[in-house]
Amino acid sequence: MGQRWLYAGLWIRMLVALLLGVAGMAVLLAAEFALATGVIFFLVVLAPIVGLAILAMSGLATVYVGVVWFVALRYRETKLSDLFGGTTRGVLGELGEKLRQFVYGDPQNVAPLGSPSDPPTVRGVAMTVGPFVGVGVAVLLAHSLVFTAFGLSTVLWAAVAGGAVTTIGFTGWVVVGELRSAGSVRADLEDEHEIISAPERKREVTRRVRRLAGQADCPVPEVEIGASHLPRAATVGYRPRESVMLVSRGLVDSLDDEELDAVLAHELAHLLNRDAAVMTALGVPRAKIRELFGLFLDQSDSSLVLFPLLLVSTPVYIVNRLVVPTVARYREYVADEAAGELTGNPAAMASALSTLDREYSVQHTRDLRVQWSTAAFGVVPPPWEERKVLDGATRFLYRRVLGTHPPTEARIERLRDSLG
C-alpha cells in the first residue's frame, strides 16, 4: 500500500507540473508568435521608409564626400589623378576601412568619410556607398512588387507564416540544446569527480552494477571511478545503455557492501525511471526563457523588441522554477523505495543515506575542487554553508522550495517506516 501511494503521489505531482508546463509553453509560444508576426509584418509595411532612409543616408554621405573632394582639390595639394588612383584596402576599400575603424574605435580618430587632408578615392566611395544604394533600391522595388503582385492580405498571411516558422525554429533550437546538454553535464561531472584509473575498484563496482541491472532487467551503464574522497555517486544520461555512472573513491571506501549496493541501486532506479529525460522535458519552458533573457542581455538595440515577451514570460519562469523541483524531490523518494525493493534491504539504503550525510559534513572542506555545480545529480545534497544574514530564510528557499533533494532525515524516516 505504501509503495502504491508513493507512486500515486509522484504521478499527481508530475501531472500538475506537466499541465502547468504545457500552459506555460502555450503562453510563451503565443507571445513569441504574436511578436514575430508583428515584427515581420511591420518590417514589410515599413520597407519603403527603410529603403528611403538608406538612400537618404547614402546621399548625405555622397554629398559630404563631394565637399571633402572640393576642399581637397581647391585648397589642398590633392590632384584629380589622386582621387581616381590608389588601391583599395580589403573588400570594403579605403572608405570602408575608415568606417570600420570609426565603428569599432580608432586611436587616431580617423574620419569615417574621409577628410580634406586624407580624401577617399572614387573607387573606395563606390565600393562602400554603392552597396547601400543597391540595398535601398532593392528594398523599394521588392516592396512595390510584393504589394502589387500579392496585396496586403497576402503579405499579412506571409507574416503569419514567418512568425510560425520563427517560433517553431526557436523552440526546436532550445529543445535540441537541452537534449545535447547531457554531454556538457557529463563533462562537468567527470571534471568534478576527476576520473582516475582504478581497475580493481572499477571492476568491483561494475560487477555490482551488472548484477543489480540483471535483477532489474535493464542495460548496464558505463562505470567510472572518481578520485574524490567525498562519498559521491551520480548518473547522467537519458537511456541506461548510453548512460554513465560516476562513483567516487570515497563512496566505495566509506560504505559497506550492503550500503554500496543500495546506492548503486538508487542510481539505477533513476535511469530506469528516465528521471533525467523527465526533468529535462519539464524544464523546457524555463530553458526557453533563459535563452530569451540571454538574447535580451546581449546589449544590441534589436534585443529591446523582446522586452514585452520577457514581461509575459517572467510569471511562467517563476511557476516552472517552483513546480519542477517538487517533482525532482519526490523522485528521490521513489528512487530510495526502488533501491530498497531491488536490494531487498531498505534498511541498507537508510543506513547509506545516514553515512553519506555524515561523511559529507566531515570531508567536504578537505576537497576544495568540488564546486557543487552538479549537486542535483548526487545522492544527497551538499552540506549547507551558513550565511551571516538571513540564513534560515535562505536555507528554506534553496533547500525546501527550490532544492532538488528532500531533507535526508525525511528520506531515512520514510525508508524506516517501510520496514514496519
Question: What is the share of helical residues?
Answer: over 70%
Order of helices and strands: HHHHHHHEEEHHHHHHHH
Strand content: under 5%
Instruction: Indicate the mean pLDDT.
Output: 81
Strand elements, count: 3
Class derived from helix and strand content: mainly alpha
Domain unit count: 2
Whole-number radius of gyration?
32 Å
Rounded to the nearest angstrom, the distance between the terminal CA atoms is: 12 Å
**Overall morphology:** elongated
**Uncertain stretches:** 87-92, 368-372
Please work out how many helical segments DSSP would assign.
15
Q: Looking across the biggest beta sheet, what order are the strands in?
A: 1-3-2
How would you characterize the largest beta sheet? 3 strands, mixed
Structure description:
The chain is mostly helical and 420 residues long. The chain folds into 2 domains: 2-44 and 163-419, no CATH class; 46-149, no CATH class. The protein contains 15 helices and 3 strands. It has helices spanning 2-45, 47-75, 80-84, 93-104, 122-149, 151-193, 199-216, 249-254, 257-272, 275-282, 284-296, 307-343, 346-363, 391-401, 408-419; strands at residues 222-226, 233-236, 244-248. It has a 3-stranded mixed β-sheet with strand order 1-3-2, sandwiched between helices. β2 and β3 form a beta hairpin. α4 crosses α5. Residues 87-92 and 368-372 have low confidence and may be disordered.
Name its key features:
420 residues; mainly alpha
Topology:
Blueprint: H1 2-45, H2 47-75, H3 80-84, H4 93-104, H5 122-149, H6 151-193, H7 199-216, E1 222-226, E2 233-236, E3 244-248, H8 249-254, H9 257-272, H10 275-282, H11 284-296, H12 307-343, H13 346-363, H14 391-401, H15 408-419
Parallel strand pairs: 1-3
Antiparallel strand pairs: 2-3
Helix pairs in contact: 1-6, 1-12, 2-5, 4-5, 6-11, 7-9, 9-12, 9-13, 11-12, 12-13, 13-15
